[in-house]
């Protein structure tokens, strides 16, 4: 089991972090579904799941450990089934919720909201089309910044000429 924290790329769904964010990789990259990213609504954390199955809970043996009083020792399991990611409740005391509905087992979709105890995640399935759109938005934002800088430069040069005259 690999628990490496790496800097999160700013392209993650076009969000500009207010403070440093990081991505925690859960498991070695294996042939599976596209990696699942669980974006914490609070705390600026992203957990990227590569293993075909990841157990979430409070216990030290859980693949993704959430130290919260409302999280069971082995609360739920995210797993790859064919081309889809699913979440399954492991008979937790407080239940697992997807989009506000308590579930036993549920196929996950892009931007689903998953609640495990008091911890809330938004799913990012990293679809290829979604990544291309994010790259395009990032390129457009970069171009706007460059145009703004270019528009400011002549104004600065003109004011310097006036000062020196």
Short description:
Helices cover 22% and strands 35% of the residues. It is built from one helix and 13 strands; from the N terminus they run βββββββββββββα. It has one helix at residues 128-164, and strands at 3-7, 22-26, 36-40, 45-49, 53-57, 64-65, 76-81, 84-89, 96-98, 101-103, 105-107, 113-116, 119-124.
Structure description:
The structure is a single chain. By secondary structure, the chain is α+β, with helices and mostly antiparallel strands. Helix content is 22%, strand content 35%. It has one helix and 13 strands, in the order E-E-E-E-E-E-E-E-E-E-E-E-E-H. It has an eight-stranded mixed beta sheet with strand order 1-2-4-3-13-12-9-10, with no helix packed on it. A five-stranded mixed beta sheet has the order 6-5-7-8-11, with no helix packed on it. The chain starts with a strand and ends with a helix.
Keywords:
single chain, 165 residues, alpha+beta, 8-stranded mixed beta sheet, 5-stranded mixed beta sheet, elongated, disordered N terminus
Helix-strand blueprint:
Elements: E1 3-7, E2 22-26, E3 36-40, E4 45-49, E5 53-57, E6 64-65, E7 76-81, E8 84-89, E9 96-98, E10 101-103, E11 105-107, E12 113-116, E13 119-124, H1 128-164
Parallel strand pairs: 2-4, 5-6
Antiparallel strand pairs: 1-2, 3-4, 3-13, 5-7, 7-8, 8-11, 9-10, 9-12, 12-13
């Amino acid at each position: 089991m690999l628990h490496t924290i790496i800097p999160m790329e700013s392209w993650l769904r076009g969000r500009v972090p207010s403070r440093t964010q990081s991505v925690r990789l859960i498991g070695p990259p294996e042939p599976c579904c596209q990696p699942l990213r669980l974006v914490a609504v609070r705390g600026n954390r992203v957990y990227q799941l590569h293993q075909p199955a990841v157990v979430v809970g409070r216990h030290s043996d859980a693949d993704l450990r959430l130290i919260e009083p409302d999280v069971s020792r082995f609360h739920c399991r995210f797993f790859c089934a064919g081309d889809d990611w699913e979440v399954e409740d492991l008979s937790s005391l407080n239940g697992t919720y997807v989009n506000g509905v308590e579930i036993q087992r549920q196929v996950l979709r892009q931007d689903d909201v998953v609640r495990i105890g008091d911890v809330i995640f938004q799913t990012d399935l990293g679809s290829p089309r979604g990544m291309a759109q994010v790259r395009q938005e990032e390129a457009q934002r970069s171009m706007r910044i460059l145009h703004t800088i270019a528009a400011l430069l002549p104004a600065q040069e003109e004011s310097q000429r006036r000062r020196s005259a």
